[in-house]
Amino acid sequence: xxxxxxxxxxxxxxxxxxxxxxxxxxxxxxxxxxxxxxxxxxxxxxxxxxxxxxxxxxxxxxxxxxxxxxxxxxxxxxxxxxxxxxxxxxxxxxxxxxxxxxxxxxxxxxxxxxxxxxxxxxxxxxxxxxxxxxxxxxxxxxxxxxxxxxxxxxxxxxxxxxxxxxxxxxxxxxxxxxxxxxxxxxxxxxxxxxxxx
Length: 197
Fold this sequence. Notes:
alpha+beta; Immunoglobulin-like; 4-stranded antiparallel beta sheet; 3-stranded mixed beta sheet; 3 helices; 23% helix; 25% strand
């Protein structure tokens, strides 16, 4: 009778052992390792969140396009797009086996190396020359409109007084207005064009 009881426990033990093995089955661990030349640059992910100084690593879940921003003092900021393709064991239907049934951990590590370029220092003379060119160009943008002389302004006492210099004349109160569609002042000349470099 005892042997019958032990015989019943054996399939149950095997079933429990198999269930534990399946539950302890591996998975796929995905991560980036980002290095730079020179090392020590700060890396931000596609959301602008800092990952850390290089060499830096970051886990990822999905395959696709990732964008990293790499910054270091004295070097140009680099923006790197990394298109991560799924390996064969992550293809549809095969991924169920690699994610759930394989009894070990599969590590998918993607290495991204970013060579940084030093910032080119511009001599002060060149900066001053460019500033002078921009200043001259800016002075031509807001040119003062020419003063158009108008008719003399009648004053009490019978003498006509010329309009003050620097002020565009306005018709006196009660003066007849020109017919609609006729502009009493001549058209302004076009503004000067900027000189090409």
